[in-house]
Model the fold of this input.
Amino acid sequence: MKNPIKYLLSGLFLFEAILCNAEHNQKRVLTLGIGHESNTFSTVLTKESDFIILRGADVLKGEAWADVFKNADIELIPTLHAHAWPGGVVERSAYENFRNEILKDLKKAGKLDGIYMDMHGALHVEGYEDAQSDLIKEIRHLTGNEVLISGSFDLHGNLSPEFVKNIDLITAYRTAPHRDGAETKARAAQMLVDAMKFGWKPQIESVVIPILVPGEKSITEVEPLKSVYAQIPDICKIEGLIDVSIFAGYCWADLPRSAMRVFVVAKDKKYGSAAKKEAIHLAQQIWNSRRKLELDVPSGSIDEMIHKSEEYTGKTVFISDSGDNTTAGAPGDNTQVLDALLRLNSKNALVAGIVDPEALKACIDAGTGKEISLVLGGKVDNVFGKPLKINTTVLYITPDSVMKTNRGAAVIETGGVKTVILKTRRSFVEIKDFKDAGLNPLDYKIVVVKLGYLFPELRDIAPVHLMALTTGFCNLDMRSLPFKNVNRPCFPLDPDMVWEPF
Ligand SMILES: [Zn+2]
Done:
């Protein structure tokens, strides 16, 4: 008989070896993100301080995509995730700091099986032709081609062929206004988990559709796109196909890559032709309906929209100041709508809001209930806007605890028109934004927002929505913008062009 102690020890070694092997086989995924929608018409650079940056465990907190990886017993190595509110082109040093930190962590990470990129897709950086491609090429340079890379995107992204060549799995939001952000990111994670598990070698087929369309004319809840997006789930069920993304693109970027796109991801190159066929079919439908890509609400000049609001007796009318839409990168300090409301002697109107930290400080210094003179707005957007001189009463100032954050605000009243003055650039996109300033939007006849389309919560409660076609860095009239670098011909800049998908 063998020495029992030796026997026991050898058993222990074997057990340890099995454990080590199990540990060794645990898949490892590194995560990163640089998300920004960069408006190349804006004169204001987006700086590093404009980004919300998360690192380490903070990245994963409360994220459904992180749970997908954890549930699949995948070890996560979260690196920098930086996201900012849409704005002008990103400062070169900000991007390079982010990229270098990600690459440094990637070098330290050891052997990886996958990478998850939490992106927006419309990033543009000063001095770079295509920073997103730069980032993924640098990553590939370190990882080689064996590591699978999966990315989630806003459907308002513009992904170049160079970028797509280096990524394995792509998925984008299927709703605009966006209702499926968390779901999309979780899908990108699940695709990566499945690809690693089943050993897929994904192939992405795409069609670039030469259309420049603002989000306001490519809403997925209305035709013509509603029925096109509705086909996605069925196409994903076709043998060998994994996912379909229809990118409306981001039109306020004067770049060669700005366009609509369809991506179909196949499990393997043998399903490439099936993927291409579906991409062409979707692209053809979109192209055929290009002249129907129009606003889904009445639109016109500011004065026309203010007069039109009177037609809706007893109903609150939301009016979008669409040229100064901060959710598409505009500065948010244009006063042209406030000026028109005062000139037309509007009553019971609310302007939410105008960004002006200087004017906000003047309100704080004066205190609530005080009458003051203000020179409001027109300080950042000095191309389309100009400061407005008003005598006004300070009605409300957010508490100190809120004022310390970027949600600080004051409410002033001028001749029947209330205006929210904001500390930092943002738009009122949900009911909470009004509540925080002590306001209920439905108390007013007119509510002006610095948006194009209304975001889901407001879209769901707004009795009426009108689109004021104001001037600004987010002008909805594509043909009035000074495009120089987009690929031509494209619709609607070249309205009679002939094209077919390929
Ligand atoms: Zn978007």
In short: The pocket of zinc ion is lined by residues 154, 156, 178 (CB under 6 Å). Confidence is low (pLDDT under 50) at residues 4-9, 11-22. Residues 24 and 366 are 65 Å apart (CA to CA).
